[in-house]
Amino acid sequence: MTQNADPAADPRGFLLALFKTARRAADPALCVAAHLPPKPKGRTIVVGAGKAAAAMAHAVEQAWQSEITGLVVTRYGHGVPCQRIEVVEASHPVPDAAGQEGARRMLEMVRGLDADDLVLCLISGGASALLALPAEGISLDDKQAVTRALLKSGATIGEMNILRKHMSAVKGGRLAAAAWPARVVTLAISDVPGDDLAVIGSGPTVPDPSSFADARAVLAKYGVTPPDSIRRHLEAAVEESPKPGDERLSRTETILVARPQASLEAAADLARKAGVAPVILGDSIEGEAREVATVMAGVAFQVARHGQPAPAPCVLLSGGETTVTVRGTGRGGRNVEFLLGLGVALGGHADIWAIAGDTDGIDGTEDNAGSVLTPDSIARAAAKGVSAKERLADNDGYSYFETVGDLVMTGPTLTNVNDFRAILVLPGTQK
Residues 132, 169: contact at Cβ < 8 Å? Predict the structure, then answer.
């Protein structure tokens, strides 16, 4: 779709163009180089993790032709060839042995440096699972078990990362502490609500304000019983993560090179050029995906019926990270769950279209980024004997939208500023 196309003539194309624009605003090739620090007198060690880590490393190499070395860990299928920075691929969202070995080697690389050296750390969404070096006494199997339980529990990303930091030998500021007295500069792509530096990638280079007691509280809140090794580790609380004011983190700096709000603003600019009023509802929306969908359906109805908070044509934009408490046996991530809930709430309104997708190109653990919801999605599925309400109850958004051919497939995008949602309300006769 071109910028001056009529969204009413091609609503699906318009929504896909918004999603593409949001992703492009966070492309490491476009946003990393401008934030690189001055080169040091000593060595430069590049480390990092996340779904964008390899693309970020490639951008660093393109900008800095001088001698650098290092290692980054990214998700399987998200690698980019680099000349001087090694790229390791590992599992996400459940960690594996490749991520564990990559994190161990990374920790060794930053030890023994001096004050003239620089550690350039590249962090993006997914780093929490990819930097999988359990604390002493905790096995990878036990960490995997807790991760799986939390993924199904409905815990927020912030809550999950509190626990991750207190099961880890590298997260929660521990990577930067190991690099002391070298200077540590972190370039981060935010994928968390509120752009909290301590939550992005579980903050391996920033002070951690949370505690072992907070980690135990997360498990209690969601009724998760951990393996004995993790329970003993959390109860002993022997070695807390580095806190604000820790001298070992006094030479650290973190720079956000891409964030959800910037991607929403880029999409809003495109909407304005197409003659559609953008309303940004927020870049840090959290909550159960289907419940968030019900609320946003109400906002869309308000636009359609009363022209508030803006008259149609209007697009409601939002970001953040919803959650899904898994009770069924179906397939799908939080974005298709959101859209399925939205479709049920809208009831086939003739003038409302929507898209929801993860900007990394992977919704949950499936091969889709998300999906498009059309006014006739519910009817088309029903004609094939597929009930939206039944599929929602079974957490089966992927299969539902696969049935009607509305899944959005991008492949790995090599960036991650979390979820992108756009609800397009067109002028029409239905009120």
Answer: no
Same domain for 76 and 137? yes
Residues 6+ apart with CB under 8 A from 253: 37, 183, 184, 185, 186
Written as one letter, the residue type at 37 is P
Q: What are phi and psi of 210, to 5 degrees?
A: -85, 170
pTM of the model: 0.93
Say which CATH number the domain at 379 has: 3.40.1480.10
Asked if the structure places residue 4 within a domain, the reply is no
pLDDT tens for the chain, residues 1 to 431: 444 567 999 999 999 999 999 999 999 999 999 999 999 999 999 999 999 999 999 999 999 988 899 999 999 999 999 999 999 999 999 999 999 999 999 999 999 999 999 999 999 999 999 999 999 999 999 999 999 999 989 899 899 999 999 999 999 999 999 999 999 999 999 999 889 999 999 999 999 999 999 999 999 999 999 999 999 999 999 999 999 999 999 999 999 999 999 999 999 999 999 999 999 999 999 999 999 999 999 999 999 999 999 999 999 999 999 999 999 999 999 999 999 999 999 999 999 999 999 999 999 889 999 999 999 999 999 999 999 999 999 999 999 999 999 999 999 999 999 999 999 999 986 75
- Residue range of the domain that includes 147: 28-258
**Which single residue is written with the structure tokens 């590298």?**
170
Tell whether 6 is covered by a domain.
Answer: no
Question: 399 with 265, same domain?
Answer: yes
Which is it for strands 277-285 and 314-320: parallel, antiparallel or unpaired? parallel
DSSP one-letter code for 394: T
Q: Domain boundary residue among 196, 231, 258?
A: 258
Q: Rounded distance, CA 148 to CA 89, Å?
A: 20
**What are the angstrom distances between the C-alpha of 119 and each of 36, 57, 176, 183, 252?**
12, 13, 9, 6, 9
Residue 258: name the closest of 22, 418, 26 by CA. Answer: 26
Q: How many domains does the chain have?
A: 2
Residue 431 belongs to some domain of the structure:
no
Q: How many CB atoms lie within 10 A of CB 280?
A: 15
Helical H runs in 122-169?
A: 127-130, 140-153, 157-165
Supply φ then ψ for residue 358, to 5 degrees. Answer: -85, 130
Based on the fold, state whether residues 227 and 317 are members of the same structural domain.
no
Q: Are residues 236 and 269 in the same domain?
A: no
Tokens of 97: 């042995």
